[in-house]
Amino acid sequence: MVLKYAPQDPALAAFIKPAAQPAPPAALAAPSPEPSRPQPPAPAASPPPATTGKTLVSLRIDTDLLAAFKANGKGWQTRINATLRTAVGK
After folding, report:
1. Would 24 disulfide with which of 2, 28, 74, 89, CB 3.0-4.6 Å?
2. What is the Cα–Cα distance from 5 to 9, expressed in whole angstroms?
3. Tens digit of pLDDT for each residue in 18-75?
4. Distance CA 12, CA 6 (A)
5. 72 and 65 in contact (C-beta within 8 Å)?
6. pLDDT band at 80, cuts 50/70/90?
7. Residue range 4-11: average pLDDT?
8. Which DSSP state fits 9?
9. What's the per-residue H, E or C state across 16-79?
10. Nearest-CA neighbor of 5 among 14, 44, 37, 62?
11. Its pTM surpasses 0.70
12. 3-11 long-range Cβ contacts below 8 angstroms, 24+ apart
C-alpha cells in the first residue's frame, strides 16, 4: 500500500519531511554583507612633553604643608616648585 502525502493532514505532515533543496548557484546566493564602514582616524598622539625641563616625581611631604599649599587653590604644585627653587637659591 502506498500513502500519498496530503499537506492538509497534520498527522502525516509531522512524519514526512520535504526533500532537500540543492544549494543555489553562487550568482543566486544571498548578497554579500555591506562593505564595512571606514574606520574613524586614530586619535592623534599625545603632544610631546613640555620643554621646560620638568620631571614627574613622587614626593612625600607633611600633610599640613600640603594642606597649606592647596588652601590657596589651583596652582599649588607651581607654588611648591617656586618655594623649592627659592630654598635652593635658583
Report:
1. 28
2. 8
3. 666 666 666 565 666 666 777 778 777 777 666 668 888 898 999 999 999 999 999 9
4. 7
5. no
6. very high
7. 59
8. -
9. CCCCCCCCCCHHHCCCCCCCCCCCCCCCCCCCCCCCCCCCCCCCCCCHHHHHHHHCCCCCHHHH
10. 14
11. no
12. none
User: Domain locations in the chain?
Assistant: 62-90
Is the separation of the CB atoms in 69 and 76 below 8 Å?
A: yes
Cell of 82: 617656586
Q: Which helix (H) or strand (E) holds 11?
A: helix 10-13
Please name the amino acid found at residue 54: K
C-alpha cell at position 28: 543566486
CA max distance for the chain: 115
Q: If you average pLDDT over residues 66-86, what whole number do you get?
A: 92
